[in-house]
Amino acid sequence: MDELLPLAGYCALMSGTPGPNNMMLVASGAHHGYRRTLPAILGINAGGAVQTFATCMGLGALFTTWPALHAALKLAGTLYMLVLAWKLAGSAAAQDRPPERLGFAEAALFQAVNPKSWLKAITLASVFMPPQLGIVPGALLVSLVGALIGFPCISMWALFGTGIGRFLGSPARRRAFNAIMGASLAVLALMLLR
């Protein structure tokens, strides 16, 4: 229990604070509602759990051995987030319709290029892996705790977006909201690049 509380606290902090996943969930919740955003929430959770498990099983050691591989993945993730930010910011400018929503598979795969997800997975593997359980059970425990804590935390962001969506009745408000969310995602991507 002494080790589970800090692990749960770290997972809540990483899942509950602003990041690429949460910015996309706010936008999706605002445009599509919580129920239609749920596949993305589940995809983020599943992708994060697989990523954490793989990292606990040794991917973190690979990145430590070849830092250039991690740097390349970080750059690719930042560029992808900038593309998403551009699409989000311009989604309602050309035509008056909401941006496409991420599905389960897209959200799960996005974790592979999300720098914040990698930071979380590597920290979970290096700081919170319980060595007394063995590698596979320890990796499963850390991944499961991350997913269980992450689900309500990221759901709050989608619900926040759903609440905001009620105020986006006019095309001008939707365009402004999309521009703000796109700019926020772009700034976040550039900050994670450091």
Tell the overall outline: globular
Overall mean confidence score, pLDDT: 83
**Estimated share of beta-strand residues:** under 5%
Category from helices, strands and their pairing? mainly alpha
What percent of residues adopt helix (DSSP H or I)? over 70%
Number of helices: 7
* Contiguous runs where pLDDT drops below 50 for at least 5 residues: none
Radius of gyration from the alpha-carbon trace, in angstroms: 17 Å
Order of helices and strands: HHHHHHH
Distance from first to last alpha carbon: 35 Å
Give the number of DSSP strands: 0
Main pleated-sheet profile: none
Q: How many domains?
A: 1
Supply database-style keywords:
194 residues; mainly alpha; 7 helices; 84% helix; globular
Description:
- The chain has one domain (4-77, 99-168).
- The radius of gyration is 17 Å and the shape is globular.
- 84% of the residues lie in helices and 0% in strands.
- The chain is built from 7 helices and no strands.
- It is mainly α and 194 residues long.
- It has helices at 4-16, 20-65, 67-94, 104-110, 115-128, 135-165, 171-193.
Strand-helix topology:
Layout: H1 4-16, H2 20-65, H3 67-94, H4 104-110, H5 115-128, H6 135-165, H7 171-193
Helix pairs in contact: 1-5, 1-6, 2-3, 2-4, 2-5, 2-6, 2-7, 3-7
Protein name: Threonine/homoserine/homoserine lactone efflux protein
Membrane topology: Multi-pass membrane protein
Main location: membrane
